Amino acid sequence: MDKLIIEGGNPLHGEIRVSGAKNAALPILLACILPEGPVNLSRVPRLRDIHTTLKLLDILGCETSFEGNEVKSTVCNIQTEAPYDLVKTMRASVLCLGPLLALKGEAKVALPGGCAIGARPVDLHLTAFEKMGATFELDSGYIYGHCKKLKGANIHFDFPTVGGTENVLMAASIAEGETIIENAAREPEVVDLAEFLIACGARITGHGTSIIRVEGVSSLKGCDYTVMPDRIEAGTYMVAAALTDGELEILDCPFQELDAVVYKLREMGVWINEDNDRVIVRRQGELTGVDITTQPFPGFPTDMQAQLMTLMCLANGAGTIEEKIFENRFMHVQELVRMGANIKLKGRTAMIRGVDKLTGAPVMASDLRASASLVVAALAAEGETEVQRIYHLDRGYEQLEKKFSAVGAKIRREKE
Ligand code: EPU
């Protein structure tokens, strides 16, 4: 297992480029089961979760190659079982359920189970597919799904689930008739998946709003597609620039998709400006605490909650963060406290009182975004921080330590 050793206190300066979005690339890769012709994807980030997905695609009967940031995939002979060994390491594997049901009328997918940030059930996915004519049995940790021919339906999600919307979107593309998804997730990654499916010949309208209409077609064709840049990676760089009192020029920044984050950062006293092909970020005077509630898009993203909390640790005055998406996403709190932060937790709300400085300490990463928050905390802290268990970070940030080193961070990877 690797760890990162970070010597804090060096302001970050220079250009930093954002990679392809993990959470867009994952569903798009699984949607590659659907088209009959070859798919060529660009800007696919080289991450652990992407490699896991490619393994799953191989098992499901696609021939794939991954060179640089390009993935090529061609369907050969589709199989319908997603084994536990892969699903347990990556919950997004459950997104093959929709494409398999729509294509083959059956799927056997391991139940993802709990994960570090909460229980995260898939009940909303299953209820939607039942509406489309599928039946499910749960046996020995597997979901067995069957249907004759998946049929379009009116689906109303109780909660705008990102994965549920994506799963239904893929299945509905080749289901019989029209599907209407109400209270659909509006996340940019859902929009990117819809655009990919449209490039393959799907008939989808309304993506990016809470009502999506999908007119099923008999088959999809291959296409060339470029994955959107990662808004959470870009947001993490904004926080790093402000925390270290440096100035970063972020390239390939999906600025329009970061409204809620930019709004809160500006409220805290961070200067952010879009200038042609880059977004420039630096601190403007003292930082102040703010109140944040995580929400589905276009609200403040849960995936930026931990990083903003770190920034608030060094702000003037107090601020609060209420986590409304996941019930257990505060595992970074205890670690930040070990670095000198003043944070009190009450249920789903954290109260953060700014301190003068954070100090380096050995800390342990518990999930992807918690890891990112500890790394940016370490960049600003006095002394040396050892961030252990960074395999979480490798799931979601492409070459993070190389990118941070190139803009002046003292950061190195070592074997634990
Ligand atoms: N939920 C249910 N039942 C369901 C589906 C979801 O109760 O059938 C609950 C979940 O337990 C959770 C909430 O609804 O409490 C949100 O779940 P959602 O389905 O919207 O999220 P997801 O698809 O599991 C994706 C991202 C997450 C991101 C969330 C919210 C991927 C692969 N994952 O998860 O990303 O936090 O949307 O935006 O796209 C990350 O990148 O670190 C990450 C966790």
Structure commentary:
The chain is of the alpha/beta class. It has two domains: 2-19 and 229-415, UDP-n-acetylglucosamine1-carboxyvinyl-transferase, Chain (Alpha-beta prism); 22-226, UDP-n-acetylglucosamine1-carboxyvinyl-transferase, Chain. 32% of the residues lie in helices and 27% in strands. The protein contains 14 helices and 24 strands. It has helices spanning 22-31, 48-59, 84-87, 97-104, 123-131, 162-173, 188-199, 231-243, 259-268, 305-313, 332-338, 368-380, 391-396, 400-406, and strands at residues 2-7, 13-17, 39-42, 62-67, 70-75, 81-82, 106-110, 135-139, 142-146, 154-156, 178-182, 203-205, 211-215, 224-226, 247-251, 270-275, 278-283, 291-293, 318-322, 342-346, 349-353, 362-364, 384-388, 410-415. It has a four-stranded mixed β-sheet with strand order 22-23-1-24, covered by helices on one side. Helix 1 (22-31) runs parallel beside helix 7 (188-199). The N and C termini lie close together (5 Å). The model has no long low-confidence stretch (mean pLDDT 96). Uridine-diphosphate-2(N-acetylglucosaminyl) butyric acid is lined by residues 23, 26, 92, 118-125, 159, 161-164, 185, 187, 189, 302-303, 325-326, 368-369, 396.
